[in-house]
Design brief:
The complex is a heterodimer of chains A (about 475) and B (about 375). Chain A is an alpha/beta fold and about 475 residues long. In chain A, about 40% of the residues lie in helices and about 15% in strands. In chain B, helix 1 (about 115-125) packs parallel to helix 2 and helix 6 packs parallel to helix 9 (about 285-300). The chains are: A alpha/beta (about 475), B alpha/beta (about 375).
């Protein structure tokens, strides 16, 4: 008689959907599910073999080794934890030449000099960053608009590079910029270092300029277009990627927005919903929408993007790609918003211009309203006090999705993650209640949408998914046709 | 191994040596043969041979190449232990095995595992420019220390030769043994390991012993040292139906393997004895084979198809088919002469005694296969 190995399950349309701790899954008919639970499956049946191949059941004599295999696979899935804090966000300044309607960082007018990090603080930040035990260090320069203080940005990059001669870490930088101020001289500098440029593109001119007005009244779209070309010419084509923020105005233009990404020859798009922070709350009427509106937007956009891939243009939807990696591969994904334990502090941290350290961007925003919930220290403290301190420990202890109410029974938990910050902002409780959680609804709907496509097993769609997962062109994923015919 | 028969003169012992050709063909006798002559002449006719000189007479003398290593038995049987022109030379470490696979092409009638001295000699005679050399058996790891010494010798004598180890991986379950192999620091090792099913019971039934988990753990041990692993899946009646599930199992549990070979059967030895449990016409699992290749290719796993003829597999997986049968046991049917794809097709095993698909059908024109 077989034993059941641990798994979670829920109804999925007329079927049952089961996952285990390592993310393997199976769809069962009602009757198959019943016989599984009642231990009535015949050991020569295909169902028995499929369940045992995926480690849902096991013969008693094999339990020891099955557990060993499962633990190897579990370690692989959670290997994002092997490296402690990897992503370090520095805010050199809050000044910005743009005044985006949804700005979540409360950017400031470029004339206000008090929102700037000084050089000695910047060095202290870099010293702290290199204390991280991670072999990989990514320093992301955010803002405000970091190019407004490019001299400081340069110094941070040069100083980090110099320090790394002793630390020998895999060091990378990201500059988050709206691109409107970038100059040839800056790009010549950027080219020399392992720096990636992350920018924003919200869609065609009308939408982009509406969401992202410049303080001087000029069109940010026109400058973006011009500077994108210059950037690519100088630093190379693939060093720049763009992020999309979906606002109320975007909802009825999914095709136009996606086409704009293709027009600008981007091969990746990230359909991100609005974050309920900062200005986005103030401008809620102008920008906001219900989570259902977003889910509908996401689904139709995803289908459109798949079609574009099938027509021969490689375009990855990043959110789907992350989730598909979790569902279909044995590997670990390092995306801080969809991980368990949550990424706050242990995967990424934010160093503010004033020397305060937060678990994340949102944590810094809360502090501006007087709430220090996600403040984990300041640059004058020792590394150990900040990163091994009580604050981070107590936050992480309550951010392990597998232990949270509702999540602990949800078969999707292995593809999802804990979001303590969002829970806190929406419900004033880092554990949160899933029944009323918008982020839970969004993730569930999106993951189920992807699972439905996987269950349908349409070979064209699956080829697109695998091309995203393995970063290969569609024609490499499809079978190469015979070339040895005379 | 290739064998031929020849007429022998003045040779009454089993001798062993390396072919050398300058003006004439000669066989330089290796030291271990312990006889009182060091050179054997090779000729294609009896005229002019001396009465005392050891000589081999073969009709087709060009069957020998300078650098071949052969064994000559008094009966006249000549075995090619190493062929300079071949990329698939094998060193038999032992014929003993800790498995008893139902489709093993070798019949385990007697156990002989005293090849060590001879193997040492072969390795020291092998041309140093040789690209590939495979260790096999039986199960080579059973002669644990002999095997380690042979690998060590390869590292010393054959610096640029890629060494392929054909093993069932069972003894690699012992991490200390794996460490000993790794510590030799040989730069070009690869391990070729069989996995026949995603279901332990089926795999164990096929190999005749309870080793599914040892083999997998053996691979985990190799992966810890980032070793090059090729998985070998021989397809027959016992396992063809779950090939796609096996592929998914490999991706989920052994994603680090570098190559997966899906292999057709060679009907010899045990395979003939158990033919009713094994035989399936490869044509009957055509769709399953295609599905498996699609699945592995989607996942960016390197996959090849061995020992299948092009006319019985889908054209969309032709690119994955390799001409995998060693030339000395490879042949084509008469009807294959009509086939426009013959040059690209791997053909058949001579050793398989006409056990091949009923659907072999020469490809005359392209329309036929579309």
């Amino acid at each position: 008689m077989y034993k059941l190995l641990p798994f979670r399950f829920s109804k999925f349309d007329s079927k049952y959907f089961l996952t285990n701790e390592i993310g393997e899954f199976i769809f069962l008919k009602q009757q198959e599910f019943n016989s599984l639970i009642n231990k009535e499956i015949n050991e020569n049946s295909t169902l028995y073999k499929n369940l045992s191949s995926k480690f849902f059941i096991c013969e008693p004599s094999n339990i020891e080794f099955a557990t060993k295999l499962l633990s190897v696979k579990y370690r692989t899935k959670k290997s994002f934890l092997n490296n402690f804090t990897t992503l370090h966000i520095i805010v050199p300044t809050l000044q910005c030449n743009s005044n985006c309607l949804y700005c979540q960082v409360s950017s400031q007018d470029s004339t206000l000099s008090k929102f700037i990090m000084d050089l000695s603080s910047a060095k202290k930040v870099v010293n702290l960053i290199f204390k991280s035990s991670s072999k990989y260090i990514k320093i992301e320069l955010q803002g405000g608009e970091p190019l407004l203080k490019f001299d400081l940005v340069q110094k941070i990059i040069k100083y980090s590079t110099k320090l790394n001669r002793f630390y020998h870490k895999h060091l990378e930088f990201v500059i988050c910029t709206n691109l409107t101020l970038i100059t040839e001289r800056q790009l010549t500098f950027i080219k020399k270092f392992p720096i990636w440029i992350s920018t924003s593109l919200d869609g065609p001119k009308e939408i982009h300029d509406y969401n992202r007005p410049l303080r001087n009244g000029k069109s940010s779209y026109d400058l973006f277009k011009h500077n994108l070309e210059m950037t690519r010419n100088i630093v190379g084509f693939n060093r720049i990627s763009a992020l999309l923020t979906v606002t109320k105005k975007s909802l009825s233009y999914h095709k136009e927005i996606i086409n704009e990404y293709i027009l600008n020859q981007f091969h990746s798009i990230f359909l991100r919903s609005l974050n309920p922070f900062g200005l986005a709350i103030k401008n809620k009427k102008k920008l906001g929408y219900s989570i259902d509106d977003f889910i509908e937007f996401y689904k139709k956009s995803l289908l459109y993007i798949i079609k574009i891939n099938l027509n021969g243009y490689f375009l990855v939807e990043e959110y789907a790609s992350i989730i598909l990696n979790k569902i279909l591969t044995p590997f670990s994904t390092s995306f801080v918003d969809l991980q368990s334990p949550a990424g706050i502090g242990i995967s990424y941290a934010l160093y503010n211009y004033d020397g305060n350290i937060y678990t994340s961007d949102e944590g810094r925003m809360l502090a501006e309203t007087g709430d220090n919930k996600f403040h984990i220290g300041s640059i004058s403290q020792k590394y150990e006090e900040i990163f091994y301190g009580y604050k981070i420990k107590s936050l992480i202890r309550n951010s392990v999705a597998e232990t949270l109410p509702e999540c602990c029974f949800c078969p999707l938990v292995v593809y999802c993650g804990a979001d303590p910050v969002r829970n806190y902002v929406e419900q004033n409780d880092i554990i949160g209640n899933r029944i009323i959680s918008k982020i839970c609804k969004k993730n569930k709907e999106i993951i189920n949408f992807l699972l439905k496509i996987i269950d349908d097993n349409n070979s064209e769609y699956m080829n697109v998914f695998w091309s995203w997962i393995t970063h290969r062109q569609l024609n490499q994923v499809e079978l190469k046709h015979e070339n040895n015919i005379c | 191994m290739k064998t031929i028969f020849a007429e022998l003169y003045n040779i009454n012992d089993t001798i062993f040596g390396k072919i050398s050709k300058k003006k004439n063909y000669i066989l330089k006798i290796s030291k271990i043969s312990k006889i009182n002559y060091s050179i054997v002449y090779i000729a294609n006719q009896k005229n002019n041979i001396s009465k005392t000189q050891p000589t081999i007479i073969v009709e087709n003398i060009s069957i020998f190449n300078s650098g071949d290593i052969i064994q000559v038995e008094p009966s006249g049987m000549i075995t090619f232990l190493f062929e300079i022109e071949s990329d698939s030379n094998l060193i038999f470490v032992t014929n003993k095995c800790n498995c008893n696979c139902i489709m093993c092409p070798q019949l385990q009638e007697y156990v002989y595992d005293d090849y060590y001295i001879r193997n040492k000699q072969i390795i020291s005679l092998i041309d140093s420019k040789t690209k590939y050399l495979a260790f096999t058996g039986g199960e080579p790891t059973l002669k644990k220390n002999d095997f380690l010494s042979l690998l060590k010798l390869c590292k010393k004598m054959l610096k640029n030769t890629r060494i392929e180890i054909l093993t069932n991986g069972i003894l690699l379950d012992d991490i200390n043994y794996v460490k000993e192999i790794i510590l030799l620091n040989h730069p070009h090792l690869s391990f070729h390991i069989p996995l026949y099913s995603d279901i332990s019971k089926i795999h164990n039934h096929i190999v005749g012993t309870d080793c599914f988990f040892s083999t997998i753990n053996g691979m985990y041990n190799l992966a810890k040292f980032k070793q090059n692993i090729e998985l070998r899946v021989v397809i027959h009646k016992q396992n063809y139906d779950r090939l796609p599930q096996l592929a998914e199992f490999i991706y989920r549990n052994l994603p680090f393997v570098n190559q997966i070979a899906l292999m057709g059967m060679e009907y010899q030895g045990n395979a003939i004895k158990n033919i009713s449990d094994l035989w399936i016409d490869p044509y009957d699992y055509k769709e399953i084979l295609t599905e498996t290749v699609i699945l592995l290719n989607q996942r960016a796993m390197q996959v090849s198809i061995f020992n299948h003829q092009l006319c019985i597999i889908d054209t969309q997986i032709w690119n994955y088919a390799r001409k995998s049968i060693s030339s000395w046991k490879n042949f084509y049917l008469n009807q294959c002469n009509k086939c426009i794809q013959k040059d690209f097709c791997g053909g058949f095993f001579i050793t398989s005694h006409n056990h091949y698909s009923k659907h072999i059908n020469p490809i005359i024109n392209l329309e036929q296969i579309k």
